[in-house]
Design brief:
The chain is 38% helix and 18% strand. It has 415 residues and is α/β, with parallel strands linked by helices. The chain is globular.
Length: 415
Amino acid sequence: MQRAAETQEWVANITRQAAFTRGYSPLSAAILDCLAGWLAGRLAVGLAVGADGVAAEVEALRRRFLAFVGARRWDNDLEPILKLAATLHSHVLRGDPRVAGLRPYYRTVSDSDTADAASPDEPAFAGELLAALSALGDDLLVEAEGWVMQTNETARGVIWLLPAALLQIEAAYLVELGASAGLNLLADLRRFDLRWADGEGLTLGHGEASQFQIECEGPRPSLPSRVRPPEIVARVGADARVVDLDAPDAETQLAACIWGDQPRRMQRLREALELRRGLRGTPQAARMLRARLPDETDELLRAAVPVHPVAPVILFDTYVTAYFNDVDHRALVRAVEAFARPWTLRHQLSWLWVRFEPARAGETQAPQIGWCRWWVEVWTQGQRHTVELGWAHPHCVHLSFGPGLAALARLRGPE
């Protein structure tokens, strides 16, 4: 009975994730739909029921999956699903012959462009997926067990760029919490085009070529059509596990965390990696620190900000504290506040903490499934202001603003 209940729970978890991805990544949704159906015992999900060996392959897959998720205590329900998906994608990216039948469905590989790629809605997809999973067998699970999920969504740089523009910050120390890859520390060197349905637009960043196209709703910020980002004095990222992107195969592992039918996200990631390589050894390169949060928050902030600062601080986190329990989350908030408030008084400079996280229990729920709450904590002259900017898709393809835009702009004082 307990095993059956656990299976039902995982089916429900996978089904919820499929619902979130369906409109944005049909391939991811199709993979999850098949997995949920097979776990639930619906053998006919996408398969020819009478085919030789199909029932045995599905049963073997079910046993492997349940052994995998039951072998350890996961940080959250999404972790094993995301690790399996990323590991499978890595085999596709590397051209593993065992998953050759899946390559036409993955638009992130060079020979599967949009015009020629197969659709996961096609009847053959489920069979190719089952064949690939069966061929990989335990190898997939062993790799997934040790897989390190890494920040790969480079569109999230807009999360700190826009508040900096609203406050007209001219220069800043930039610090990211949970920056396993640190690529959003380079957002000011890229280009973000925000567009409203009425044709109004706003461009952020130094980049010249078109990169991020972001749909927006709600009020438009009271800003010029193009805003020059602040000068970044130093870029520091912190994570419990710092990823060395110069290590062999590290960039492929990072790329594998992108959903397989997202070629534009893959292209943006490759641009960010190229930008990072070009900055190595220069003052603009990001510095990565190892820190366990919330326990080492004070030590991190002291290491990230110089003793004699010459500019405000922009601290930001994107989909990081979602993995914290409530006790650790409260401890992090207390630690940042304990550091930021006296810092602003001592140095007569502002401190900006930009937050982009899923709503926690007891908070206002997101307007759409999976969206993140976007708000800002501002310390200035010892005072703390909390401003709600709105909500956004976690990949920042769509932003929904509220009245907090004007409230934040008012904190910059008179023109």
